[in-house]
Amino acid sequence: MSFFGLFGNTEDMSTGTYAGRESATDRAARKDTEARGKRAAHHRKAATKIDRQVNAEIDANRTAERTGKRGRGWW
C-alpha cells in the first residue's frame, strides 16, 4: 500500500474500492482448506470402496470353504 500512499488515496482505496472484499491471504487459506477437505473426502471414499472389495473377497472365500468348492471348477 505504500505505492498508493504516494498519491494520498489510501483511505479512499480502503474505504471504497476494496471495502468488504476478501483479502488474498484469506482467500488462499480458504481455497487450501476446501482443497484439503476434498482430498480427504476422496481418500475416505476410496478407502471404503477398497474395504468393500476386501470384505466381498473374504465372504466369497468363507462361502467357498463352507460349501467345499475351492476353485475346482464345475465338478
Indicate the multimeric state.
Answer: single chain
Distance between the termini: 83 Å
- The helix-and-strand class reads mainly alpha
Mean pLDDT over the full residue set: 76
How much of the sequence lies in strands comes to under 5%
| Radius of gyration from the alpha-carbon trace, in angstroms | 30 Å
Whole-number total of structural domains:
1
Low-confidence stretches: none
> How much helix is in the residues?
over 70%
Estimate the global geometry from the Cα principal axes: rod-shaped
Count of DSSP E strands? 0
Q: Layout of helices and strands, plus pairs?
A:
Layout: H1 2-5, H2 10-17, H3 24-67
Brief synopsis:
By secondary structure, the chain is mostly helical. The protein has 3 helices and no strands.
Describe the protein.
The chain has 75 residues and is mainly α. The chain has one domain. The chain contains three helices and no strands. The radius of gyration is 30 Å and the shape is rod-shaped. The chain starts with a helix and ends in an 8-residue tail after the last helix. The model has no long low-confidence stretch (mean pLDDT 76).
Q: What descriptors fit this protein?
A:
75 residues, mainly alpha, 3 helices, 75% helix
